[in-house]
Amino acid sequence: MSHNTFTYRHSELPTFRPEIKAEIVALGLHADDLILKSQGNYRELEELAETLSTCLDTCELNLQAIRIIPDDSNPQPVAVGTMTDLPINEQTIIFGTALFSAMVLSTLQRITGADAEILLSRISEQVNIEMNEISDEQITASLANYLATYRENPMQQAFRVKVPII
Cβ neighbours of residue 43 under 8 Å, at least 6 residues apart? Predict the structure, then answer.
C-alpha cells in the first residue's frame, strides 16, 4: 500500500478538468438539496454533516500530499519523515493506540489464561489478513473519520474505528 506524494512547479499544476468541475458543481447542488430536504430533522442533518465532514477531512488529507514549489526554485527532495517527526498530538494518538492495544492484549490474556505470545501471534495474523483486504482509500477515509472524532473529543483515549466499504 503506497501513499503518493505529488510535487509540482506552480506552472505545471494539472489543469482543472471540465468534467470534474461539473461533478463538483453537481455535488454542491446535491448537498444543498439534501440540506433543504432535511431542514428541521436533526438526525438527518447530523448524519449529513458527519458525512460531509469526513469527505472534507479526506480531501484535506489528499491536499496535504501535494507540494507546490515556485517556478523559479530548484526542486528540493521530499523529506521522508518518520512517526517521530509528526506533531506531538499525532504522536500521542499513535502511542495511545499502541498502549491501548497492549492493555487490551494483557486483559485478554488475563481473562482467557492463554499464552500472551500465542494471542499476539493469532491476533497479528488476523490483522495481516484484514490489512490485505483494506485499500489505501479506506485507510485514508478511516483516518479522516478518526481525526474528526478526535478533534471533537481530544481527551478521549480510545475510539472505535470503522473501516468504510469502498
Answer: none
